[in-house]
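Structure in, sequence out. Go:
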């Protein structure tokens, strides 16, 4: 048989090599019987076929027909050229058995995939940075958090840290609607913040809409929009978009250095 017939396209060759990991298949082998009843498709073959089924948006019938016509696909699915291709009904029955086991087999499969991607350093660690800015456009406090915690959980701690560092309660606070929570609005007012420009998230009542149309509320929102410029400058000029230091502590040092440089330039313009 000519070697060209067995040669895989580059993307499929990479997929074939990447899936050659026992961890993808071991957890599924005990979830359907391979001896009783109709002979079942091996777990490795089933999961490899499932991968290409979703990758190319194929039905079971179309997938099996393509495998019958392509020797290279038989190679990926570990189906010898002289053996029959699984029938579409077999794939359907396996899914039913896996679903009947009560476990989310696709979630387990994706968990192993993410773990392998992490081991091979294919995933970049993403950290979230919280910034609090004064009326003079100075960053008064910041924090770096692992992952992507909800914005609404960051507002109150940020304002508290701002008060601790500056020694005064801000007269006004403005955020985007991602920080909205009734508890946040109440907490800021209890701290002594006189004007809280925190857009409601969801369908507004008539009373809420009138509140957010007040001149002071809209003025604070316009000021808040200017913070996007601060974030853009920190990323573009001071390297805040990507840290070159390793680990969470290294990331915090990098962010601190970027904000230090930014604040120094702001102060130079203010004095």
């Amino acid at each position: 048989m000519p070697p060209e017939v067995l040669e895989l396209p580059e993307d499929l060759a990479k997929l074939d090599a990447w899936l050659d990991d026992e961890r993808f298949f071991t957890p599924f082998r005990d979830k359907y019987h391979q001896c009783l009843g109709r002979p079942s498709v091996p777990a490795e073959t089933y999961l490899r076929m499932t991968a290409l089924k979703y990758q190319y948006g194929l039905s079971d019938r179309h997938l099996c027909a393509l495998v019958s016509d392509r020797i290279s696909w038989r190679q990926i699915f570990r189906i010898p050229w002289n053996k029959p291709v699984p029938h579409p009904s077999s794939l359907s029955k396996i899914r039913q058995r896996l679903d009947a086991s009560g476990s989310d087999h696709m979630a387990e499969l994706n968990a192993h995939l993410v773990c392998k991607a992490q081991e091979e350093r294919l995933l970049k660690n993403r950290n979230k940075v919280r910034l609090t800015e004064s009326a003079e456009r100075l960053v008064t406090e910041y924090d770096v958090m692992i992952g992507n915690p909800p914005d609404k959980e960051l507002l109150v701690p940020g304002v508290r840290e701002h008060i601790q560092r500056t020694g005064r309660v801000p007269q006004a606070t403005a955020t985007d609607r991602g920080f909205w929570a009734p508890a946040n609005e109440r907490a800021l007012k209890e701290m002594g913040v006189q004007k809280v420009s925190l857009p409601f998230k969801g369908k507004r009542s008539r009373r809420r809409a009138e509140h957010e149309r007040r001149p002071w509320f809209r003025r604070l929102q316009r000021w808040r929009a200017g913070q996007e410029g601060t974030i853009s400058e920190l990323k573009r000029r001071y390297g805040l978009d990507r840290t070159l230091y390793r680990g969470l502590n290294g990331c915090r040092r990098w962010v601190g250095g970027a904000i230090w440089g930014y604040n120094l330039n702001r102060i130079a313009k203010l004095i």
